[in-house]
Write a structure and sequence with these properties.
Length: about 230
């Protein structure tokens, strides 16, 4: 049974949120993600959010293998998200659709008996040098368009990005798409300054593109050596 969740306003002041720890996944503001939630404490956290204002804090575990992550293995910057809909579990797994809404700075995690709770404050982007941000934005979109192997997806993402007038949102949208390690996506999430975020994202995309190019050249070289006639 699918249940739609009514929208509710976010509180900009520090307050307590139920925490949903994530393995190998970073969710950015303004992105939607479907999740299967199976851990008991995680299910309890989602249920707590739904009983309240539907807002939950998504925290990417520093160690993905941890079944029950401790409070010191969760990040100080996380993502506030709204539970949009959920399917009540029949097989012990809760299926939810969430939408990232804002970055949050965590002042303290508290291990409750039924789930983890965080006292956190919503963060606002800082812009910095707008001319630098504009230059970095053009460079990021060019690098992404050149790097992204799926040209259809690249074209769609670039077209959508050009419709946005918020550089921070564009950076988050592209960071969510690019195939980066979770630890690198977490670094992008932690960049509150938009210029810092764009500069970091540009470096990460260019580095990943260089790695892919080097791997491609090695495969081509190995293939040529394998089929060389002597």
């Amino acid at each position: 049974m699918i249940t739609a969740i009514p929208r509710s306003p976010l509180d900009a002041d520090a307050r307590a949120y139920p925490v949903l720890p994530l393995r190998d996944l970073v969710v950015f503001p303004n992105t939607r993600v479907s999740l299967n939630v199976g851990r008991e404490k995680s299910i309890r956290a989602v249920e707590c959010a739904v009983r309240g204002d539907n807002i939950i804090l998504l925290a990417t575990q520093k160690r993905a293998a941890d079944e029950d992550p401790t409070t010191d293995t969760l990040p100080h910057i996380a993502t506030l998200a709204r539970v949009i809909e959920f399917t009540k579990p029949q097989d012990g797994v809760l299926r939810i659709l969430i939408e990232g809404t804002a970055r949050a700075k965590v002042a303290m995690y508290t291990a409750r008996p039924d789930y983890t709770e965080a006292t956190a404050t919503m963060l606002q982007d800082t812009i910095g040098d707008t001319s630098l941000a504009d230059m970095l934005m053009r460079s990021v979109m060019a690098a992404f368009e050149s790097y992204e192997p799926n040209k259809d997806r690249s074209s769609e993402a670039i077209a959508a990005a050009k419709q946005m007038d918020d550089y921070g949102r564009v950076a988050d949208t592209l960071a969510a798409i690019v195939a980066l390690w979770p630890r690198d996506k977490q670094r992008v999430l932690e960049a509150i300054s938009v210029t810092d975020r764009l500069a970091l994202l540009l470096t990460l995309i260019e580095t990943e593109a260089a790695v892919l190019l080097a791997e491609h050249r090695m495969r081509v070289k190995a293939s040529r050596q394998m089929f060389r006639i002597v």
